[in-house]
Amino acid sequence: MNKKKLYSYLLILSGTGLMAFAIKSSYDPIGLVTGGFTGIGIMLRRLTAGFIKGGIPIWFTNLVLNIPLLMISYKLKGGRFIGRTVAASLLLSFWLGIIPDCDIAGGDYLLASVYGGVLTGAGVGLVLSAQAATGGTDLIATLLHIKLRAYSIAQILQVIDGAIIVAGIYVCGLRASLYAVFSVIIVSRVSDLITEGGKFSKAVYIISDKYEQIADSVMHDMDRGTTLLPAVGMYQREERNMLFCVVSKKEVPALKEYIRNIDARAFVIVTDVREVLGEGFLEY
């Protein structure tokens, strides 16, 4: 097994462990149905507690419900994806089976939703970073993402889990479900942060007649690259030159000061950039 493949499986191992620990220590003890097959498992465990001692185990529900999804995934995503996803699904059920029941939040709904949301989001993010899914609704979201490219996997997952949370109202009550919504939002934000990158930058567009001086200052004083883009001002149909560059957030004040000193009338647009790959930023 090469280092890259080993690293992927270590991510899956760590991610599923975090998710299982959040479920057993935060969600299950107070009935926070945050979505996913594990959320369905929490509901089934409570509904069957009167017939089966302790109810149907969450690990069992998670394992059984994933079987048809894994078969579909094999056809759509191929053996490489399904291999990692089978491993993630089995590991999640394994962790759910061996981690003991505990209530770390002490019955506090707010603490449980925040604590569980951060751990689950981190776990989901690690698994998705390994190009896998733990099965359940995150696998459904991954499959739907094939057709719904305009939305991130985490956004699709949020919608699906929302439907399960609504169902949880009838089993665990309205209060728990409201806190579950809060937790799902945290999961979405944390998983997005991990999968899409956390080193945010700024893209800057500069329109100025003194573009050559500004470009020279950016390249030599700030040691940043810049690109010249041809543009046309539609009001006067006048051809202009526009500079484009990407800098870190902490460099924005200095850049604006350089521009102001060269051309106080320059038109400057500063916008957020989610992730930048390449020299001077994140490595591939």
Please give a handful of descriptors for the protein shown:
284 residues; alpha+beta; 62% helix; elongated
Q: How would you describe the overall organization of this protein?
A:
- The chain is of the alpha+beta class.
- 62% of the residues lie in helices and 11% in strands.
- The chain has 10 helices and 4 strands.
- The protein has helices at 3-30, 36-47, 58-77, 79-98, 109-129, 136-144, 153-172, 174-196, 211-221, 252-262; strands at residues 201-207, 227-233, 238-248, 267-273.
- A 4-stranded antiparallel sheet has the order 2-3-1-4, with no helix packed on it.
- Helix 3 (58-77) packs parallel to helix 6 and helix 5 runs parallel beside helix 8.
- The chain starts with a helix and ends in an 11-residue tail after the last strand.
- The mean pLDDT is 83.
Short overview:
Helix content is 62%, strand content 11%. The protein has helices at 3-30, 36-47, 58-77, 79-98, 109-129, 136-144, 153-172, 174-196, 211-221, 252-262; strands at 201-207, 227-233, 238-248, 267-273.
Helix content: 55-70%
Number of E-type strands: 4
Mean pLDDT: 83
**Order of helical and strand elements:** HHHHHHHHEHEEHE
Taking the sheet with the most strands, its summary is: 4 strands, antiparallel
Shape: elongated
Structural class computed from helices and strand pairing: alpha+beta
What Rg do the Cα atoms give?
A: 24 Å
Number of helices: 10
Instruction: Going across the biggest sheet, name each strand in turn.
Output: 2-3-1-4
Strand residue content: 5-15%
Are there runs of 5+ residues with pLDDT below 50, and where? none
CA distance, first residue to last residue? 22 Å
